[in-house]
Amino acid sequence: MTTIILEENQNKQGIVVHDNAKINHAIGLLVLKKKREPFISLRRIAEETGLTLASIRKSVERHRKTIEVFGLLDVQDVQSKEGRGKGFVETFLNKQQFQLLATFLKNTKQVEQFKVALIAAFEITQNENSKLKAKLESQSWQSARLEGKIQRRSFSDVIKEFSEYALLQGSSRKDGQYMLISKKIKQTMFDIKYKQDSFRDFLDVEQLQSVVVLESIIEKMVRAGIEAKTHYREIREDIFEKVEVFASAVGKTQVEGICVRNQMELDFKI
């Protein structure tokens, strides 16, 4: 099954996007930069179109004055992931700059499909950013988020104490129990459509409130378990069971978000 997302006269060329897979893939190629505005790198464009990076850079330079009508080119020195080598220079384009560049590229079928998918990805990302901005400006959401941050600090302190308690009982997890428990909460409570770079910013008021209640319950369980000198594995198993019961009671809910890279790396935080 395929979804046609082009104008009628373009459809005759047979350019389609299969079940939104290409759009979702394109969303993952975007980089959030200034004020969460999405950008695409020339390197990614080359990889996805099958064109050489040199030819794309040449086209950008040839039409630079026209492209920069939509803003100065964002050129950065990027270090290698391993921290070795000289790194490289990368150029990023915003939506309008990419759309203009796309008119100068060789129109192979691969290029045309990528253009369609990426423009759709830009639109989706910008729409999601608008929704997020509106939510962040909501007073009720801000109150729920603040309450969640306060609870999170308290929760983190208790889990840190629990991690130290577990180490004393022979746990080999140097990173403690925090990631295990946080991951359990996230995966059990929420159906996450995309990975987010600021997970809780994408929760609605009810979801934030549910997490506050659940973390408060877990805190009490941990304190009671430590006071009773219960083995850490048993405490953790009881926590996981409580999370399952709680999620069944309130229902697993979907979290919308944007699968993007923060600069060159995806920053996946809870």
How does this structure look, described?
The protein is of the alpha/beta class. It folds into 2 domains: 128 residues, no CATH class; 125 residues, no CATH class. 57% of the residues lie in helices and 9% in strands. The strands form 2 sheets. It has a 5-stranded mixed sheet. The chain has a two-stranded parallel ribbon with strand order 5-6. The two termini are 35 Å apart. The relative contact order is 0.12.
Widest beta sheet: strand line-up:
3-4-2-1-7
Counted by DSSP, the helix tally is 11
Distance between the termini: 35 Å
Q: How much is the average pLDDT?
A: 81
Which stretches of 5+ consecutive residues score pLDDT under 50?
1-19, 258-270
Tell me the number of structural domains. Answer: 2
* Helix vs. strand class: alpha/beta
Strand content: 5-15%
| Shape, per Cα inertia axes | elongated
Based on CA atoms alone, the radius of gyration comes out at: 23 Å
Largest sheet: 5 strands, mixed
Which percent bin holds the helix content?
55-70%
In total, the number of strands is 7
The oligomeric state is single chain
Q: What is the chain-wise order of helices and strands?
A: HHEEHHHEEHHHHEHHEE
Summarize the structure.
The chain is 57% helix and 9% strand.
Which characteristics define this entry?
270 residues; alpha/beta; 5-stranded mixed beta sheet; two-stranded parallel ribbon; 9% strand; elongated; disordered C terminus
List the helices and strands and how they pair.
Blueprint: H1 8-11, H2 21-27, E1 31-32, E2 38-41, H3 42-49, H4 53-62, H5 64-67, E3 74-78, E4 88-93, H6 95-102, H7 109-136, H8 139-168, H9 178-189, E5 190-192, H10 205-227, H11 232-250, E6 253-255, E7 261-262
Parallel strand pairs: 1-7, 5-6
Antiparallel strand pairs: 1-2, 2-4, 3-4
